[in-house]
Amino acid sequence: MTQHRKGLVLDFGGVLTTPLLTAALAFEKRAGLPWGALLTRLYLKPEGIRLSEELERGALTQTQWNEAAGQLVGIDPEGLMGRIFADLRPEPSVIAAAAAARRAGIRVGIVSNTVGLEPWDLYDGYDIHRRYDAVVLSGEHGTRKPEPEIFRLVLRDLGLTAEECVFVDDTEQYLAPAADLGFATVHAVDPARTVAALETLLGIPLTDTDPDRVALRGDTL
User: Fold this and answer.
1) H or E segment to which residue 67 belongs
2) Tens digits of per-residue pLDDT, 118-166?
3) Which of 19, 26, 66, 196 would staple 77 via disulfide (CB 3.0–4.6 Å)?
4) Does residue 186 contact residue 197 with C-beta atoms inside 8 Å?
């Protein structure tokens, strides 16, 4: 008999929002950068990786990251993080599925590698502290995915064990450490497939067409 999970832990950017990569590539085009130049310099080369990891741990402010990243890429650093991800939008189907899970009694948390909260706030308008049962942002704790400690923090706040939970992330390399702790994992590559996988693992329907509840998908977003 299948043992359904009773907790759900979600990444934020790329799971509850549209894809990060799509937004970054759109910024490259607007900025007149060669295709892939931004991603290569900031997320594949050692100095860019170091800067991003320090930002996610809260060791750098977003403004400090903007300045350093702007130099690496050779573009204006003013508000750079917000400009890179200006095209991000909510992912309604996954947001609605998370809300449906909570209504069904599933404990739902967020664990997110942060990019600082100012001058640009990735989470602005999503009301994450009201909509979810636990929110663990890496920069507030000095630890980041894929380190096990960040998963233990969200489990503590949910009051559940890893074996009771599902973890969803669009970054595949973060799934194996969660699985090692006991999470069931879902690689978020397509919202419909993500929701279908969660329905199977949680054992409940998550697609809601009730017009009185559809508002939950978009109010304040």
Assistant:
1) helix 62-73
2) 999 999 999 999 999 999 999 999 999 999 999 999 999 999 999 999 9
3) 66
4) yes
Structural tokens at position 42: 């900031």
Question: Which two three-digit tokens encode residue 209?
Answer: 């067409």
| Helix H or strand E encompassing 185 | strand 184-187
State the Cα–Cα distance between residues 132 and 106, nearest whole angstrom: 10
- Report domain extents, the chain: 7-18+89-217, 20-84
- Global pTM value: 0.91
- Cα–Cα distance measured from residue 25 to residue 37, given in angstroms and rounded to the nearest whole number: 9
One-letter amino acid for residue 112 of the chain? S
| Separation CA 178–CA 184 (nearest Å) | 8
Q: Are the C-beta atoms of 130 and 30 separated by less than 8 Å?
A: no
Answer yes or no: are the C-beta atoms of 26 and 87 closer than 8 Å: yes
- 175 within 8 A of 187, measured Cβ to Cβ: yes
Distance CA 97, CA 107 (A): 13
Omega within 30 of 0 (cis) for the link into 92 = no
* CATH code reported for the domain at 7-18+89-217: 3.40.50.1000
CATH code for residues 20-84: 1.10.150
| H or E element in which residue 109 lies | strand 107-112
Among 162, 140, 159, 141, smallest CA distance to 151 is for 162
Using the structure block, give the residue that is written with the tokens 């929002």. Answer: 17
How far apart CA 150 and CA 143 sit, in angstroms, is 6
